[in-house]
Amino acid sequence: MTPVIHFSDILVIGGGLAGMQVALHASGDLRVTLVEGGVIGESGASPQAKGGVAVAVGEGDSPGFHAADTEVAGAGFCDAEIVKLVCDAGPARLDELLWAGVPFDRAEDERLVLNHEAAHSHRRVVRAGGDRSGRLICATLARNLRETPNIELRQGCTVVELICEGERVVGACLEHRDGRREVVIAQATVLATGGLGQLYARSSNPPEARGTGLSLAMRAGARLVDLEFVQFHPTGLWAGTQAVGQPVALLSEAIRGEGAHLVNERGQRFMCEIHPDAELAPRDIVSRGIWAQQARGESVYLDATALGKSFARRFPSAYEDCQRAGFNPATDRLPVSPVAHYHMGGVKVDADGRTSAKGLWACGEVASTGLHGANRLASNSLLEALVFGERVARSAAEVARIRNAPLSARANLDLMQWPDAPDCAAAERALQQVRALMWATVGVVRNGAELERTLEQFDQMAARFPARSAIHDTITLASLIALAALRRCESRGGHYRSDFPQPSPDWQKHTIFDSSGICSEALPQDLALSAR
Ligand SMILES: Cc1cc2nc3c(=O)[nH]c(=O)nc-3n(C[C@H](O)[C@H](O)[C@H](O)COP(=O)(O)OP(=O)(O)OC[C@H]3O[C@@H](n4cnc5c(N)ncnc54)[C@H](O)[C@@H]3O)c2cc1C
């Protein structure tokens, strides 16, 4: 069947915060096509964000303080120029959201409420609707997007391949839910496909967070970097009854900050022996504390009963999640587990979001800008999506205007011979196996011997599926993360190796995958060149 061919100036793939921000800033005189697998403004991780956006606008705060906190969290791995650029741009991006109509929370004197979050030295997290920040920001941008001329939306469509002419990305092939295929040819293509938490059996991420953008980018010739750095949130509400592939609700640090304690089955607090800040220690330390209890066969609980009935008032959204799972936080201990939450690694980009593949940009969680280093500071990812979304739009629009090359559809359309999807049941079984292996061996605590065994298993599994199928991509991506974790013989940020429990000066370098999946290392000063 001949696909419909559609021409555009800029193609944006992914309709979360990053994708919407690019589309809104790139339109005007240019035609933008935005493709989203689900529903714009409702899909992806962005609407799930509860904490808010970190911006240094408070009295006594400054972008410099914000940058310093970001670098401490990043464990010596942040790109200082990018950190400065993002923190400096925060206030302007916040003003823009206010103009766009996002109803950020205000005090009685009409000033913005600035919240305090762990590892931030100042109160600087703005929220909307209490813990409904992501939902309200996305709803506002989605409304504005629908009213913007020159933006064409394709919802319920999945991009299955990028199209290259020579070494240049010139668009993408999409599949509609009813199986129809469409080709979009564009001067500039932007990946904004979000994270990969759903490669793990326990994750806070929505079902669509499977890292498809990373596979698309790599096949088109873009480099991937630091894939081993995954952040685990310590306290997902984990009753063991979770439907497979569905996100686990989070019980935030703020609840622990209000006096809730972590206890094992025997009611013993265990974090006090591990860190002076006990339950309020950094996320990776709390995650490992819980993991160690679980490894001994103990279930772990968050005991928030001391908050009594005030829990419902202070944490309305978490209260609803608890009720839905059959728990009353005023009287019940809440079962918890670490969950895969955020991917610091991604498609390597420069300060304008350009990848190493010509014609291709990336932003949001799929990209690795250098902002987060080895560990993300809470509430910095929405900020990154806003700042880089604007920068990518500017850069891609500039290229689209200058190039103005006649768009042809001579591109590699042999995609239409895409192999038949493998047996769905077999692919689904393989996916569950990937998720279980990733959780057990490429999760909170890793070690060399297990990583090697997992890599062998991934190889065997991949051989059972056609090379250009979605499940093959998923297995390949999982094995790249495992390989990067195996190569990094140290512990740093979100990456912990029980056989190398300390950071090592020898590992002040980044892991990089080229388009054939070959892994190498680069020193920080050489990394900037890797996006070119
Ligand atoms: C529960 C939770 C709470 C969080 N809280 C905060 C917070 O308070 N503050 C903060 O800063 N960060 C928070 N984060 C992280 C933050 O939400 C994400 O990092 C950020 O929203 C990512 O935005 P994005 O636009 O890159 O991706 P997403 O919002 O995930 O959007 C990606 C979109 O791409 C689409 N897509 C993917 N592949 C394809 C394809 N092949 N074809 C078409 N479409 C595709 C998906 O359907 C999805 O809608 C939280 C994350 C979670 C899961």
What is the typical, i.e. mean, pLDDT? 93
Major sheet characteristics? 7 strands, mixed
Taking pLDDT < 50 over at least 5 consecutive residues as the criterion, the unreliable ranges are: none
The proportion of residues in beta strands is 15-25%
The number of helical segments is 14
Distance between the termini: 37 Å
Q: Which structural category fits the helices and strands?
A: alpha/beta
Radius of gyration: 22 Å
Please describe what this structure looks like.
By secondary structure, the protein is an alpha/beta fold. Helices cover 33% and strands 19% of the residues. It has 14 helices and 19 strands. Strands 1, 2, 6, 7, 8, 9 and 16 form a seven-stranded mixed beta sheet that branches. Strands 17-15-10-18-19 form a five-stranded mixed beta sheet. A hairpin with a 4-residue loop joins strand 8 (168-176) and strand 9. Helix 1 (17-26) packs parallel to helix 10 (380-403) and helix 3 (80-100) packs across helix 10 (380-403). The longest helix has 24 residues, at 380-403. The two termini are 37 Å apart. The relative contact order is 0.16. The mean pLDDT is 93. It binds flavin-adenine dinucleotide (FAD). Flavin-adenine dinucleotide (FAD) is lined by residues 13-19, 35-38, 43-46, 48-52, 134, 158-159, 192-195, 204-205, 208-209, 212-213, 250, 342, 364-366, 379-382, 385.
